[in-house]
Design goal:
alpha/beta; 2 domains; four-stranded mixed sheet; three-stranded mixed sheet
């Protein structure tokens, strides 16, 4: 848990805004060690492929030992599993109040993954990316084909109403994407921004901002639209609805806190041993309605 806490704030914008977060440890003790015998406090399990999960309601009960019911809808809950397996899945609940800045509690499950680097990568993708910022997967499988129209409509609705999935779009025209302001800004010319087909696990019909990022191959840092989404949600939660986003303020902060080397990190390619984790599981109700 200490290692997890330290790695929560190694990528921007989390690194710059560490003091804007409240982080709580909740010690959960199971009757057995590991997962082969069952009888764990959170009913943790490893499913097919990289699917992993547990009893979300038990997680909520433990979380309520640290925070109030009123805070749950804005919270990211992380379950650090005592295993060297490689897996990861984020369970995302509908927001209670429909706020347009990424609300809706998330429960991110992932194990240690075998080494410190993998553990940090799982944390950044599952918790920092999906769980807090509500970012979409930027990887794709060829056999998934084209994103179905009803699925696209659901994603667009969540983008508009809740502020989820700010790092994917459904147009091949870079000038018409959700991140077109970055594409046309010469200050971001070195970030490789455009419209790259493939995302949300679908091979065609979905476009992502960069060739690579934490949301594709778990490496390369968060790309500019993802950094903007993280920055936006941090400020909305910290300062309330009265805070208004200003693009130039973000660019000024971003220029100070990214270096030439980090700005081009999104060009890093797929690691030799990379395996995508399971896509987020969307629970079609609020956490209270699920209990």
């Amino acid at each position: 848990m200490e290692n997890l806490y330290n790695n929560l704030f190694t990528e921007e914008p989390y690194k710059s805004y560490k003091d804007h977060f409240n982080v709580y440890y909740v010690n959960v003790v199971s009757a057995t060690e590991g997962y082969e015998y069952g009888n764990t406090a959170l009913d943790g399990y490893f499913g097919d492929g990289t699917l992993v999960g547990g009893n979300d309601n038990a997680v909520f009960d433990y979380a309520l030992k640290a925070i109030s019911e009123e805070e749950i809808d804005e919270a990211l809950l992380i379950v650090a599993m005592n295993s060297d397996n490689y897996a990861g899945t984020c369970y995302m609940y509908y927001p209670e109040n429909g706020a347009g800045y990424g609300n809706g509690v998330s429960v991110s499950y992932f194990p240690r993954g075998g080494d410190a680097t993998t553990f940090a990568q799982l944390l950044h993708h599952e918790a920092c990316g999906h769980g807090f910022a509500k970012l979409a997967d930027e990887y794709a499988y060829e056999d998934m084909g084209t994103a179905p129209s009803d699925y696209v409509s659901a994603i667009k609705s969540q983008q508009s109403n809740w502020g989820w999935w700010k790092n994917v779009d459904f147009t091949s025209d870079p000038a018409a994407t959700r991140w077109s302001h970055f594409v046309s800004d010469t200050r971001y010319a070195n970030e490789g921004l455009g419209a790259y087909e493939g995302g949300l696990t679908y091979w065609t019909g979905v476009w992502r901002p960069t060739e690579n990022s934490i949301m594709r191959y778990n490496t390369g840092g968060f790309n500019a639209p993802s950094r903007e989404a993280i920055y936006y949600r941090i400020h909305k939660l910290a300062y309330g609805d009265s805070w208004e986003y200003n693009y130039e303020d973000f660019v000024e902060w971003d220029a100070r806190n990214r270096t030439t080397s980090s700005a081009t990190r999104t060009m890093e390619y797929k690691p030799a041993n990379y395996k995508p984790t399971h896509p987020p599981v969307i629970i079609n109700k609020s956490w209270k309605d699920a209990k």
